[in-house]
Amino acid sequence: MARSSSDDVPTADGMPMLGLGTWENEDEEECAESVRTALEMGYRHIDTAQAYGNEESVGEGIARADVPREDVFLATKVWIENLAYDDVLESTRESLEKLGTDYVDLLYVHWPAGEYDPVETFDALSELVSEGAVEHIGVSNFEPEQLDEAREKSDEPIFANQIECHPMLQQETLRAYGEEHDVNIVAYSPLARGSVFDASELGSIAEKHGVSEAQVSLAWLREKGITAIPKATGEEHVRDNWESLSLSLDAEDVETIDGLGRGQREVDPSFAPW
């Protein structure tokens, strides 16, 4: 399969629609190397979070890569314990220091939980935008009710909603909301934490195209206008996900995958809003 370059990655409002996720990538050296490998392969979107405990490793990987910082779309998330006004400011500045950067391209509210207060939280986020420390603000794991409130209380546009989304959890309601209100959808766990490899329908499509089930899932998300940030550590998986950019699904493939939605959640903490 032809290798894609970073110039081949479609974007959504300037955000590359394929990124590297780093959830549970807690080994410092492995995390830094996966980020470096991804960037030098052509990835330009890296996603982390305060709660992942790896912002320093992500920053190290960016520093190692032969890619200018300004070419990288870098996102992190404020944890639920840090969502009071002063805590948003302090914890974000700590995140920037760990990441070794003066700004992040996208800063998310990780969950509408814990210390989250729409007024305090978004006032602080807006201040960070004014300071130049944050380019865009987003939310994660927000349902329509929380999105309505966020859009009302925030002085800045809500750039994205990062949610679990994959062929077995298709999130039609939130996708429609995003389309109506110009909120980009970013899919975490886009491979359903490995469940896509067990779906026979995806296996058949993968065999037809001579690709992996992972590539099929990522191509389907892209077909739906969704940005995906699959986690990968080893070079083989980083490359396999990257090569999904060369895969074009036909209408029959898309229809088959559309029929797989079964509301299968892989991430469901007690404090979730659903």
Note down, in words, how this protein is organized.
The protein has about 270 residues and is an alpha/beta fold. Helices cover about 40% and strands about 15% of the residues. The chain has ten helices and ten strands. The strands form two sheets. An eight-stranded parallel β-sheet has the order 3-4-5-6-7-8-9-10, with helices on one face. A two-stranded antiparallel ribbon has the order 1-2. A hairpin with a 2-residue loop joins β1 and β2. About 50% of the residues are buried.
The helicity comes to: 40-55%
Low-confidence stretches: none
The counted number of beta strands is 10
Q: Please tell me the overall pLDDT.
A: 96
Class by alpha and beta content: alpha/beta
Number of helices: 10
Kindly estimate the percentage of residues that lie in beta strands according to DSSP.
15-25%
Choose one word for the global shape.
Answer: globular
Instruction: Give the topology string: H per helix, E per strand.
Output: EEEHEHEHEHEHEHEHHEHH
Give the termini distance in whole angstroms: 40 Å
Offer a few descriptive terms.
274 residues, alpha/beta, eight-stranded parallel β-sheet, two-stranded antiparallel ribbon, 15% strand, globular
